[in-house]
Amino acid sequence: MEIHTVTENATEFTCNAYLLDCERPVLVDAGTMPGVEDVIAEYVDDLDAVYLTHQHGDHVAELDAVLDRFDADLYAYGDHPRRTGGLTDGEVRELCGESYEVVYTPGHADDHVSLVGETRIFSGDVVVYNDGAFDDGSFGRTDMRGQSRERLIESLGTLLDRMPETVEELYAGHGDVYRADPDSEDAVREVIARALERAERREPKYPEE
Questions:
Q1: 155 — phi, psi (to 5°)?
Q2: Looking at the domain that runs over 89-209, which CATH code has it been given?
Q3: CA dist 111 to 44, 96, 165, 181, Å?
Q4: What end-to-end distance do the CA atoms of the chain give, in Å?
Q5: Nearest Cα to 104, choosing from 82, 87, 122?
Q6: What gap in Å lies between CA 100 and CA 118, rounded to an integer?
Q7: 0.85 exceeded by pTM
Q8: Could you tell me the CA-to-CA distances from 190 to 168, 186, 197 in Å, in that order?
Q9: How far apart are CA 121 and CA 119, in angstroms?
Q10: In whole angstroms, what is the distance from residue 98 CA to residue 119 CA?
C-alpha cells in the first residue's frame, strides 16, 4: 500500500487529504483543493470509501466533488447528509487490509476521531507534528466557539493510552507527515507527549491570540 497526500500542491488553505492506494482505496478527509478528485483519479480508478476525522470546512469543502466522482461510501462520527455509516469510539475498521481503532478525540471539534493502527495514526487536527506554532509536537486550536482546551487535553491523553508502542508514523491534518527515525528516540509517542505538555500550559497556541 502507498499513501499519497493528494492535496500537497494546493494553493489555498486546506487540510492534508490522504489517499490509501490499494485494491480498495480509501481517502482520509477531502480538503478544500478544487480538482482534488482529479488528483485521486491519477492514482486509482475507484474509491471505496472516505473517512472523515471531523467536519470542519477545511476537511470537507471538496467532499461532494469526491463522492460525486467516485460514488464512494462515507464514514463519519458526526451526522452528514451523505454519510453511509457512523464511526463509534473503540470499533475497529479495516483500511487497505490493516486494522485501525476509531478513537474519539474531541476538543478541536465535537465530532473528531483519530484512526489508530499498529504502525501509523491518522490524527486529524487533535495533534500535528508542525504547524507554525510548534515544530515538533503541536495540537489543534481550541480558541474558537465550540472548541475546548480541556477536552483536547483529555483526547491527547487518550491517544497516548490507546496507541500501540509500534506506531511509527503520524499522518496529521496539517503540516508534515512524521516518521520516527530508527536512530532517534523521538518516537511518535514523544511527539504527542510534547503536544500534551504544551496544551496543558493553557497558554494561547499562537502569541497573537
A1: -65, -40
A2: 3.60.15.10
A3: 29, 24, 26, 32
A4: 41
A5: 87
A6: 7
A7: yes
A8: 11, 6, 10
A9: 7
A10: 9
pLDDT in the model for residue 182: 73
Mind listing the pLDDT tens digit of every residue in the chain (209 residues)?
999 999 999 999 999 999 999 999 999 999 999 999 999 999 999 999 999 999 999 999 999 999 999 999 999 999 999 999 999 999 999 999 999 999 999 999 999 999 999 999 999 999 999 998 999 999 999 999 999 999 999 999 999 999 999 999 999 999 999 999 876 668 999 999 999 999 999 888 887 65
Residue 140: phi, psi to the nearest 5?
A: -65, 150
Spans of all domains in the chain: 1-87, 89-209
Grid cell for residue 119:
504502525
Task: From residue 120, give the alpha-carbon distance in Å to each of 24, 149, 158, 169.
Answer: 18, 25, 16, 5
- Spatial separation of the C-alpha atoms in residues 48 and 185, rounded to whole Å: 37
Tell me, yes or no, if the two domains 1-87 and 89-209 fold the same way. Answer: yes
Give me the pLDDT at residue 66, please. 98
User: In which residue are the cell numbers 500534551 written?
Assistant: 196
DSSP letter (8 states) at residue 30: -
What is the architecture of the domain spanning 1-87?
A: 4-Layer Sandwich (3.60)
The rounded distance, in Å, linking the Cα atoms of 25 and 28 is 10
**Residue 169 · residue 180 · CB < 8 Å:** yes
pLDDT for the residue 206: 81
